[in-house]
UniProtKB/TrEMBL annotation:
<keyword id="KW-0614">Plasmid</keyword>
<dbReference type="InterPro" id="IPR002035">
    <property type="entry name" value="VWF_A"/>
</dbReference>
<dbReference type="InterPro" id="IPR036465">
    <property type="entry name" value="vWFA_dom_sf"/>
</dbReference>
<protein>
    <recommendedName>
        <fullName>VWFA domain-containing protein</fullName>
    </recommendedName>
</protein>
<feature type="domain" description="VWFA">
    <location>
        <begin position="22"/>
        <end position="228"/>
    </location>
</feature>
<dbReference type="Pfam" id="PF13519">
    <property type="entry name" value="VWA_2"/>
</dbReference>
Amino acid sequence: MVSTNSSKLNTPKSVYTKKRCPVIFLIDVSGSMLGNKNDSSPPIDRLNKALDTCIRKLRNDNETNDIAEVCIISFSQKISIVRDFTLCEDIETPILTASGTTPKFFEVIEEGINQLQSYLDRIEKEGSYKLCQPMIMFMTDGQPTLADGKNITDMEVLNNSCDEIRNKLQSVKTKNLSKLKPQLHAFSVGQASDNSNYILKRLAGEHNSYFLEGYNFDNLFDWISKSIEMASQGREVPNYN
């Protein structure tokens, strides 16, 4: 069951059209994010710090803080909606903790797409918002596992799961979205394996999948904050480099 810390969708203060830029963070908080016992700065701590910096930048940006709405979902052996969609000017950064394995690898992306569709449905009912590029930011230092923690190695199962995700993302609909399709950006951090690289490319495509050696979350979240700023301004989001 998905746990939730919900906040109500912000409603417009006037009848004038306002922009909205929905962004969903899907963050791996499995046990590997604790790093090594001798690590003075565990990956989960670095992630929390970088996420807080990202949120602060967006909150302090006058062009973004009342446009971008952020939803934060964590996953390991369960999926948790840590923050429901909230305007950046109102959001407080959560502190994430790490434990467990990643049997919810694919399920959390499905949950993110479901949350996005629900958000878009609510926006459409309001009828007074112009949508900017919706984005889903998926980040992990692992790969799909079974409930017992063993990696899924059956390529047919992996390929089918990836294809189902891609099809589900393409099926997201709303009149307000017009021809603008949601983008899935997938990040592999830590020590990426050939298998995880293949899975993320299959999920997000060649240009929206990124493989980062180590846990350099500062650069990653700096790019994310800039991308959200650009999307909020109706500009094209650049590839990560």
